């Protein structure tokens, strides 16, 4: 585990883990304290989302594999893996025009639309939100 406040050391550890073939899991739907977000269109609204997953993929060469846990009615959960997203331009700004960021956002939007009651959001990522609860997210 490498907290965001670990700074460069945390990023180097994550990069090294990927180089060893290990898995790295990073939240992509919210900017945590200490993180810098990128302004991205999320559910057609300007939002602050982490640039870290795309940036780490770009510098490491590892693909992003969007993964979602879907609970079943029997209490068991299923992990759903989407197609890998290849990110190959480490010099490009992480914003709405970045193909890797757009692909990741589209994957998150699909998963949330499919099971909106499974998205744990206390405060939405929307920059222009009047209602800070995120309850007015366009889910359909």
The proportion of strand residues reads 15-25%
Number of E-state strands:
4
Q: Determine the fraction of residues in helical runs and give it as a percent range.
A: 25-40%
Tell me about the largest β-sheet. 2 strands, antiparallel
Q: How far do the termini sit from each other?
A: 35 Å
Q: What is the ordering of alpha helices and beta strands?
A: HEEHEEH
The Rg value, from CA coordinates, equals 15 Å
Enumerate the strands of the largest sheet in spatial order, edge to edge or round the barrel. 1-2
List keywords for this structure.
alpha+beta, 27% helix, 4 strands, two-stranded antiparallel sheet, disordered C terminus, two-stranded antiparallel ribbon, 140 residues, globular, 3 helices
Can you put this structure into words, describing what you see?
- It is built from three helices and four strands; from the N terminus they run H-E-E-H-E-E-H.
- By secondary structure, it is an alpha+beta fold.
- The chain has one domain (4-118).
- It has a two-stranded antiparallel ribbon.
- Strand 3 and strand 4 form a beta hairpin.
- It is globular.
- 21% of the residues are buried.
